[in-house]
Structures are given as C-alpha cells and as structure tokens.
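Lecture 7 notes: from sequence to structure.

We start with a single chain of 319 residues. Read the sequence below before looking at the structure.
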Amino acid sequence: MSPRYLLPILLTLPLALSAFAEEKAPQETFLEADAAGPDFAVQGEYTGEKCAAQVIALGAGKFHIVGWSYGLPGTTDEAEKKVEVDAQREGDKVTFDGSGWKGAIQAGQLMGTNDQGRTFELRHIVRESPTLGAKPPTGALVLFDGTSADAWAGGHMDDRKLLFAGTKSKQKFGDFTLHVEFRTPFKPTARGQARGNSGVYLQDRYEVQVLDSFGLKGENNECGGIYSKIKPRLNACFPPLSWQTYDIDFEAARFDADGKKTKDAVATVRQNGILIQDHVDIPSSTGGGQPEKPEPGPIQLQGHGNPVFFRNVWIVEKK
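Now the structure, written as tokens:
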C-alpha cells in the first residue's frame, strides 16, 4: 500500500469510526491478552514499505482497518490517513473488500491488492513507548512504584501490584513534571466513552483524557485530549492492553493578590514519547475538575467505571 498507490483512493466508505461510536452492544472486558480471544491477536498495528495500518477490533469477529501512507502516526511527519475499510473474521482469517482494496489478515500478515492490481504486504508489530519504565530522577517524589498505595487517598493495588483508577494523591502540587504509565482494557464490543475511560487530572482541575482511542480521529474527548478543550496534535494511542505513557510538564494558573487569574495554566504532554500537546493554554478547569484557585492541588487518576490501571507514577516539583 505504497503512497503512489494510495493517493488516488478517497475515503468513500460511509461508515467511519465516529459513526459506530454510539452503537449499543454488550461490553466484553478483558484485562490480560492471553484471555482476550482470537480478535485480540488480529487487532493492532501493521507496517510495510512506506505504508501502515491500524486494525481495530469491534467484537464478534468484526474489525475496522485504517490505512496510512508513509507510516504509523507518530513515526513520521509524513504519515497520512488514506483509506478505511471494514473486515470480518472467519476462523483464523480476516478478509476485507472495499474502497478499491481487497485482501486478508492471517498469521500476523496483512496482504491485499487494489483494483489496479497493485499488491501490498504488512506485518504485525508492537510499539513500545521510549519512556516506558523511566526511572525517577534525583529529587523526584515517587507516588507509586508497585510497593504501596500509601501516597494515594483511598488508593488500592491489585494482586499484580498495579494501582486501580479512582484515587487522588494525598500531596498537592503547583508546577511540576509528571510521569504516568497506564493501561486500558480490551473492550471490543464497547464504543466511545465506554471503551476504557479514565483520566489524569492535574491539580484535580485539568483532565488529560485516558481512553482506548486506538485508530480514532484524535478529538478533545479522546486519549491525549485536554478534556473537552483541546484535541491532541495527533492520535498517539497504542492498542488496548498496551502499557502507555504520559510525560506531562505543567505550569499552574497564576493569580494576583486579589485572587484574580492573570495567566492560564499551561501543559505540554507527550504520549508514548510523542508530542501531542505543545505548551497549550488551558482556559478553565475541565470535565469534573475542581474550580481554579491559587492553591496547589492533587493528582487524580479518575475512576470512571472502567478497569484502567496505573504504574510507575512519579513527579518532580518545580520550585
């Protein structure tokens, strides 16, 4: 699926991911890959020569494929979405036919032919964030390292020594750099905000959304968005059950002696090592965030009814 073959292709399918975002379906939930079924092995990212694809599992053997020219988003500035097509699994083979392309996914290979007879071949890959497992620098405060949830109000670990979503740090912070690792569940039959919803709240006021947004457009209510305010520069979301990272640089809002805000909060966010928010001004608190005030605030790992887990959380305060 090289660029010269993809360029003539238009997104002709009426069904886009936004169209199925509101569908209702029973919500299967998987926390580990070895129990996630045959669809999990197919979903994910595929790369070939100057081309790539993201395969999104939709449950019951159904998939949506997003084809990219040049490479996956975040791997090259030239990455460009070119084609979308639906697919169906029968046994160990997934087939697709649409937008001028037909082919199959089997044994970790995505192969196909367009209506001009051009062929392409991609292989299944697994990306890993370059900051995964990052060690806290000198002077950092470790908020969670798998040994204790004592730094968190009502914090709980599971038997895998992971931190459940739905807790706030006991300590409050002003300006800081924060490292967080998170994992969303595999919920192939869920849609939209039901698909692994959580969030990292800065000062308990400003939410950086956590969601399984793999393969979606990258809106302000999807993963990496400053919730409802600012969409990410690109969708850097890995597939569900991948460990992902947020590295966040945060400057708190400023207030004068009378308590009037003089400067918005500012955040820079890297997801999986990819710059997705670049020194963005946050005009007000977001979602369920607390009102803006001069005082510092805690880090909240939002509980939103989904089994989202965190690990390796540390923070460096700026004095």
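Residues 1-25 have pLDDT under 50 and may be disordered. Keep this in mind for problem set 3.
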